[in-house]
Structure formats: structure tokens, C-alpha cells
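Quick one: Glucose-1-phosphate adenylyltransferase from Rhizomicrobium palustre, C-alpha cells please.
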Amino acid sequence: MERRYPLARDTMAYVLAGGRGSRLKELTDVRAKPAVYFGGKARIIDFALSNAVNSGIRRIAVATQYKAHSLIRHLQSGWNFFRPERNESFDILPASQRVSEGLWYQGTADAVYQNIDIIHSNNPEYMVILAGDHVYKMDYELMLIQHVDSGADVTIGCLEVSKEEAKGFGVMGVDEKGIITSFVEKPSDPPTIPGKPDTCLASMGIYVFNTKKLFEELRRDAATPGSSRDFGKDIIPYLVKHGKAVAHKFSDSCVRAEGESEPYWRDVGTVDAYWEANIDLTDVVPKLDLYDRKWPLWTYAEISPPAKFVHDLEGRRGSAVASLVSGDCIISGAHLRRCLCFTGVRANSFSVLEDAVILPRCYIGRSARLRKVVLDRDVIIPEGMVVGEDPELDAKRFRRTESGVCLITQAMIDRLS
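--- reply ---
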């Protein structure tokens, strides 16, 4: 049957954004992982939401759970442009014991099951289930087309990864037609792609269902004793065995700007991965293009004055090389190299920052030297502080990773005084 309009118009995106993100350590002490800042202006969740909007999906729900205040505030501020009269909706769905008193969301599948009535009220024909904590650009319309054309019960977004990398993922065994024949979590000997003995298909945590089929599976799973109520552990393995599950390769729908040569996907779930993905943006031609006007990154656009660079004396020159500097930053006689500054950073005279990710409203005192750091929001660096030159001292004062990245919070600074 010929399609009269994009499938995205009959689709609802459901973003699972309740994860603790404990591997990001103190960065998730006061916020959920999807609410962690990224790229100078955005939050991690903005990538999944922007992909949905750019793909043409105008009905979106976000399920939240742990430490959700920062995330909910961001969603209310930056994602409040949907209009019901245009058949658009944006629902924030905190765990609220809607099914049974004492029951929060028990797993990813339960986070959808508990809100079946809200999904039903939107009447979507298709559902795209998304993780809210990955950085990537993807056209979900292309995945929807494959789902409908293949007649699948579920279509699963998959990354091609090496056999060694696959040991940390849920891995698909597939036949020559892309039909999933097995699904194993973090296997020691992962199945490989036919014809590619060193490459595996890893789940991205992106699923497409016909809504009716999704409801059937959620209700069946909810009635199954011993289920962990999780897509990856329960729903997907059941459909692989008893239904038709089809793999969708990320490379088939990844959105790439002119300078992006490879499909870009990152789980910035550790301090090292978070630091590296942000610092990568300072490259002349970064692997992820935030300047692509054809596939914009939507977020809360804070009203702020322009960035400002002041003083022009030898040794006290406000400058930034290979750096991203956001609005309301004042670089006052400081020198930045390969840095990423979020809104409202103040870097004072004679300070030197290199390979630094600096979250909003941080203050860098005079003559400080910081290298290979992540500063949490609102950190005040004392005058003359040096980080990144003495590994033993750094490890005593701050959280230092094996690769030498120092995560600094204000509580850590306060303990030094």
C-alpha cells in the first residue's frame, strides 16, 4: 500500500530518562545522566529529543525517575513549544505509583507499561522507544520505514562494533536478511555478523513497535512471574524467540554533515568518555558537527550576553585557541587551549586552562593552572590552584581517573579549606 505521508506523523517517541548514571560519579549526584550538560549549551537528552523532532515526530513522552528535578526543569524550559492544536504533545512522566502504591518504575518496560493509558490517549500507530543518555544524530523515519516494510514485531537499532567492544553490550546474532536469531547480554564470546567475523551488532536501546503489538507484549510481560520488566532482559529476548525481530543498522539512518566521515554514537557514561567526547568538539573538523543547520540540536536557549575577552598585555591576554566558549563567559586575561566553556564561566587574569570541560557558572581564580579537568557547575577555583601536574596530589584532592582526568566539584574544593 502506498504511503501518503511520513510514518513519523503516526508515531510517538517515548524516551527512557530515569537512569542513575552512577559511572559519571559526582556529575550525577544532583542530576540524572540524561540531564548532564554536554557540548557547551545542551544536555545529553537533547540528542534523542532533537532526533525525534528532526525526524518529524511531534508526539513525545519522557519517563523520569532518579534525581529528576534538573531534568524536568530543563524539559519545561526548553521543550515547551509543542501545540495540541497541531496534533503535538510533550508529556513528562515521573514515576508516580500509577499502577500500584509502592511501585516505582521497576525496569525499562515497566516505565512504558505504567503509562499505557497516556500513550493510548495520543493514539499513535507506531512507537519509537529511546534511551535518553546517548550522543548521536539519527533519522528515525528511515528506521520506521524498514520496520513497516519488513513486517517485524520489533525493529532494533544496532551499532557495528568490534568483537572486543561487544562484550559490554547486548549483542544480536542475525542471519543474512537481518532477522535477529539470538540476543545475549554482555557475552564473553559474542556472535558476529555473517561475512564479518570480527564485527558484531550491539543494541543501541532503540526499539520500534506497532503500538498494538507493544501493548500486547507489555501486558504479557507484566503478568509473567519473575520478569525484571526490562526491554533488553525480557521483552526483546521473548520476541527473538517467539516473534520476528529485525536489526536496523545505525549506519543506514545516521545523519552526517559534510565533514562527518563515520557514524557517530557515544555512550558518555564514564568520566573519561564524557571528557573525551566534549574535548573532541574542539577539533578543527570534529567527529560530531554541532553546527549542522540541517539537523539542529534543539535545547533550552538561555538568554545571555555575548562572550567577552579582555586584557591585551603579555602574560595577561584574554584568549582561547581551539576552544568553544558559550555566552556570558568572560575570559579576563586568561589563556584557554582545547577547552569547552558552558554559559557564565569567569576565567581570571594569568590563569591557564588546557583540555578543560567547564560547566556553567564556574569561577577560575587568578594564576590558576588547570589541565585535563572537568569542573562541575558553580565550582570556584581558588587563586593559584594547580591541577594536572602532580598526579598523587590530584588523586588526594579530587576524583582522578586512570587516564588522568580530574573531576572537581565545589564540595571537594570546600574540603581543602
